[in-house]
Amino acid sequence: MLWTILILLLFTCTSSADELISARCQSKCLRDLELHYQNDQEQRRNLKHHIIQICKDDATCSACTEPCRETFTDANSCKESACKDTLDNIACEKSCDYLQRIYTEKPGACPKIKNQSNYECTALCHLDGDCPETAKCCSYGCSRQCVLPKGRDPRLLPIPGTISVQERKRKRSIIIRWVMQKLTREQNAANSNLYVVQWRWGLHPDGDSMTEWQTVTVRNKPYAILKHLLSPGRYYQFRVGAVSVHGSLGFSQPSLPFKLSKEARAPSSPRDISLGASKLTPIGLWNQIVQWTPPASDLPIKNYQLSWAVSSASEANAFEEMMRRRATLTTHEKRSLDEEEEAWGIDGRDRHSVIVPSHTTQSELSGLFPNSVYIVEIHASVDSSEGELHGEKGIIFVRTLNATTSDIVKEAPIDETGFDLAVPTASEEDDDANYDNNIDIQTPFFDGELQTSVNWINSRACSPEKKTFVVTAKRGTCREYQFNQHSDTPIQEMRVDECSATIRGLTFDCDYTLEIREAGDSKVIITTTFSTKPCDATPAHGAIPCLSLATPVFCIVHATVSCHWVRDRGITADTVIGYRAALSSPVRDDTNITILPPQTREVHYENLVPSTMYTLQIQPITNRGMGKALSTNFVTHARILDENVIERFPGGEIIELPLEASSISLLPLSTSVLLILLAGLL
């Protein structure tokens, strides 16, 4: 009998950013600044009130704080990554050494355990920094566990107490206060003490139903003012951790649940509702794409409801005339139109409805009869503490054309890989069948940015009469899980006085829909599609720096998905107070939203649906509101290990070896698991 042994080492090496370690690193830099000016009485007075700004303006202090914003467990990688652009390399490198030292060992001592046999041989940590908050990594027999330390360093600041939250007169603005009791004279005189403020929130006051704790700001005063960060309709809890150069005792007890006095409003109507491509199916019915931009909303969008019903040309004309009048009226004159607009709707009609998930902003209406008019209604829904709220309704009308054989679109065969194979439509095969779509699109090329030139000189829409055209390019599907450039402009619109246009700021490896209409007329006279190629296959005037144009958000897809992004250098580091990561997928109706601290620019996802495309949107949170959003797509792998490998190797089992049995225990791993699959072959 021949035995085959397959050994797979699965490492999970995730050292999430510890807010208390980061704050301790920053406190050390502020303390050094204090010592530097200890003999300058005037500057010492300034430090008491403006130490943060003085540190920012000081080359040595600002270089010292640069590594504190990252998560490094190795001093060399810290020096290579964080210190290359600083004005004082020596101060930055010293900070890297200090950051590694405080990551390796936190204050306190490991408590003694009487019965060590109760612990299995597992490695839940390697260094103290692998453990959350104040916990230390302690060895018990062949196991390493995260446990709370014993003893208390008298130099550590006391845990903050009596946390109060008060709403200010300005809307969506609060002030958080806390009390620091029993401070020593030295602690009270120090200007380098920092306070890490965290929040969690939910739709109900029960703490168990709220999000995980997330850092919202770091202050050097016993209070914090949060402007325009809280949303109506949510309950918030806050906690505070006091940090000095010596470390921290951890976070306070949570505050009482707090809710803004302003109630959450239902979402407004979806914006920029428009019609996309339409096609005539083989059975003689029309399919029409309807697309929109998400509405303003106090709460996360749960889904959209799209409904349509048969209407008439007179109703459509009256509605569109009202909308044209609205565009030219004053605010006072619009009020009467608002009442008039409420008369439009499909209540009481025989309707068709679909529920569209929140991550999608378009849907296809199917089975529309030729030469007909339909009214389309769309609104967003949100969950609130008072139940589900339905937003304002947006309306658009669809006019279908007569059905002719030349208009019927051939259905694309389905490729076994799951992607559609392009098949020429009737209009592509014979331009004479649809003269209005006689348009020439140059192959997209790169010249400083990705662009293309289009002209419709041979179209009957182009005449000697001077006209102004509105050209709209709408980005559709993108293969963005590859390294890619993002224009972050899904819809581009321009006005031209000639029968040609240059469309700039395109995205590599994406499909686009192009629409042309005359200014002042909503009717699309020319529509077509085109695609851009991947960066390395795109024609260019010179070489394209594809790597430098890579998306600022990129994901590594394995059994788990790790996504990283780069910091926008246009935003000063001290104004970014966090990042909002929103993960969505066509197979789920909800959106996974995570708020991350400012020094964390990575997020990890587990248990995602195999062979599925996900969209990740990253948006910085600053003290002035939300920053520019960046997004990318990725596709998860098929579930091979879970279902196929063990099935191919029956008798597989998981064996955990003692730490001393393998040299890999020396690596800074959160967990290390040895999976041995044995299969017998005769």
From TrEMBL:
GO biological process terms held by the UniProt record: neuron differentiation
Identify the residues that the record assigns to the WAP domain, covering every copy. 103-150
Q: Which InterPro entries match?
A: Anosmin-1, Elafin-like_sf, FN3_dom, FN3_sf, Ig-like_fold, WAP_dom
- What GO annotations for molecular function exist for this entry? peptidase inhibitor activity
Q: Any idea which UniProt keywords this protein has?
A: Signal
Please name the SMART domains in this protein's record. FN3 (SM00060), WAP (SM00217)
Q: Output this protein's name.
A: WAP-type 'four-disulfide core
Origin organism of this chain? Answer: Ancylostoma ceylanicum
The uppermost taxa in this organism's lineage are: Eukaryota, Metazoa, Ecdysozoa, Nematoda, Chromadorea
> Gene behind this chain?
Acey_s0101.g3369
